Amino acid sequence: MIAFISGVAVDRGIDYVVVDNHGIGYQVFCGNPEMVTLNESIIFHTYQHVREDAIILFGFVEKRELDIFRQLITVKGVGPKTGITILSRFSGDDIIRAIDQEDMAFLKKLPGVGPKMASQMMLDLKGKFIASDTPSSSTKALPLVDEALDALGDLGFKKVELNNIKHELSLLNLDSVDDMIKEGLKLLHSRKRGL
Length: 195
Prior knowledge:
By secondary structure, this protein is an alpha+beta fold. It folds into three domains: 57 residues, CATH 2.40.50.140; 62 residues, 5' to 3' exonuclease, C-terminal subdomain (DNA polymerase, domain 1, Orthogonal Bundle), CATH 1.10.150; 53 residues, no CATH class. Helix content is 46%, strand content 19%. It has nine helices and five strands; from the N terminus they run βββββααααααααα. The chain has a five-stranded mixed beta barrel with strand order 1-2-3-5-4. The protein is globular, with a radius of gyration of 18 Å. The two termini are 20 Å apart. About 4% of the residues have low confidence.
């Protein structure tokens, strides 16, 4: 099982990005590939889907999006392609809220989801997700992380690069923006070197 892949984005199509990892190009299906900057470092958290005729990688910049995707595809009728299309158009947190609040009108707006599937999603997934606003060490750190990422953006780093390190920074439990910036620079430089 491939849990994540990091490397340089060398090509992209309508629904995929090709990541060069030490001379091997991995085709990673993802939402909104047009937001990925070519020839920049990237990391995808991946779901490996095995079929009789193919092994397919679905990738997510945020680990939380992958976790939500894994839950979505447990619902009967929601395959990986439907799941990734849903998450490319709506935020994971909005989907979770709609499921937990039984917001049928919102769920029916999701691509490929009708009344029957919306009901199934509520039945199967209500209460299964951990809310992102639950107090924790990582969520308490988010305002500092965002401030540090803004500063790194001012230094010329691309948004996709910064999104790639956001989760790791939030887990470091640092108390100051300066420390976050220093650690962010280390992470960004190690990614550029392919470490």
